[in-house]
């Protein structure tokens, strides 16, 4: 069905407006990060700094342990991504290949789990981690991130598994390969792009997460980067705008780069899971 020219113009105009709406906060953040104090307090702000400076970046590193916080975020995000993928991959294979009530129940759990807000989960999670003596620890935070990332990782990987022709597994079975051997030697290599995309998505989610880290981590040396960014806001709610923008810009870069690399694979996994062969 062909779309009329006015309709296409309207669609592209709406898309452009949406892109501008999404890009505005990031572009303003970059502009603020390079502005000197006198421009930050100007009554007539400009997009492009008239006298760009790196002083905000130097001040941000001097005031807060950004590198140490970034290392905590990196360790937590990497560990959560790896563990979530290792658990979700065999689960996704079972859900995609087995048409049982258990598989349907797992699929329902994936959908329902995404409807729960953070606030309802934090108290039970806090009590569980307290009993495990994992409060105020990076391993405890990793455990929370794994639980939170598993539903989406399972759903995404199940879409990739469904895209693998069952005939390949049947041929391996004819050759004498067991189910585990078939999954490891035949299915897993074909799932490599999906596994990488799922892992990177879990990494981005954990890297940007703030609420759980704020509640579960109390010691400054164990806090993650999103939590440390709040330290640029004073007790009276006044933000040190220049260093805050510089630190936020640096914290945003890794997730933007990773998402730019995997956005096509993420979209492909979603579309694959929505199409039945």
Protein model, in words:
The structure is a single chain. With 277 residues, the chain is an all-alpha fold. It has helices at residues 5-33, 37-40, 55-63, 66-97, 101-113, 118-131, 138-163, 166-174, 179-190, 192-208, 211-216, 225-229, 241-274. Helix 3 crosses helix 13 (241-274), helix 4 (66-97) crosses helix 10 and helix 10 runs antiparallel to helix 13 (241-274). Mean pLDDT is 82; it is low at 269-277.
Shape: globular
Strand content: under 5%
Number of contiguous helices: 13
Contiguous uncertain segments of 5+ residues: 269-277
- The overall average pLDDT, rounded, is 82
What is the radius of gyration computed over CA atoms, rounded to a whole number of angstroms? 23 Å
Q: How far is it from the N-terminal to the C-terminal residue, by CA?
A: 24 Å
Judged by helices, strands and strand pairing, the structural class is mainly alpha
Largest sheet: none
Number of E strands: 0
Write down the secondary-structure element order: HHHHHHHHHHHHH
Q: Helical amount among residues, as a percent range?
A: over 70%
């Amino acid at each position: 069905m062909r779309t009329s020219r006015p309709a296409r113009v309207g669609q592209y105009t709406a898309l452009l407006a949406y892109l501008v709406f999404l890009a505005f906060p990031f572009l303003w953040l970059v502009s603020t990060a390079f502005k000197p104090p006198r421009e930050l307090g100007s009554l007539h702000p400009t997009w492009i700094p008239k006298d760009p400076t790196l002083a905000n970046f130097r001040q941000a590193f001097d005031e807060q342990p950004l590198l140490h916080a970034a290392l905590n975020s990196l360790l937590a995000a990497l560990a959560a991504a790896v563990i979530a993928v290792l658990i979700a991959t065999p689960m996704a294979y079972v859900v995609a290949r087995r048409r049982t009530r258990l598989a349907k129940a797992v699929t329902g759990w994936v959908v329902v789990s995404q409807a729960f807000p953070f606030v309802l989960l934090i108290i039970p999670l806090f009590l569980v981690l307290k009993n495990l003596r994992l409060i105020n620890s990076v391993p405890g935070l990793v455990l929370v991130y794994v639980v939170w990332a598993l539903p989406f990782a399972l759903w995404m990987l199940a879409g990739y598994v469904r895209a693998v022709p069952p005939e390949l597994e049947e041929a391996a079975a004819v050759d004498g390969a067991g189910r585990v051997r078939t999954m490891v030697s035949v299915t897993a290599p074909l799932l490599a792009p999906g596994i990488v995309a799922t892992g990177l998505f879990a990494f981005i989610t954990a890297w940007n997460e703030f609420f759980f880290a704020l509640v579960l981590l109390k010691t400054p040396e164990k806090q993650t980067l999103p939590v440390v960014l709040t330290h640029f806001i004073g007790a009276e709610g006044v933000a040190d705008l220049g260093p805050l923008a510089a630190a936020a810009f640096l914290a945003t870069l890794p997730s933007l780069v990773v998402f730019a690399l995997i956005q096509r694979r993420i979209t492909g996994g979603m579309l694959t899971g929505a199409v039945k062969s």
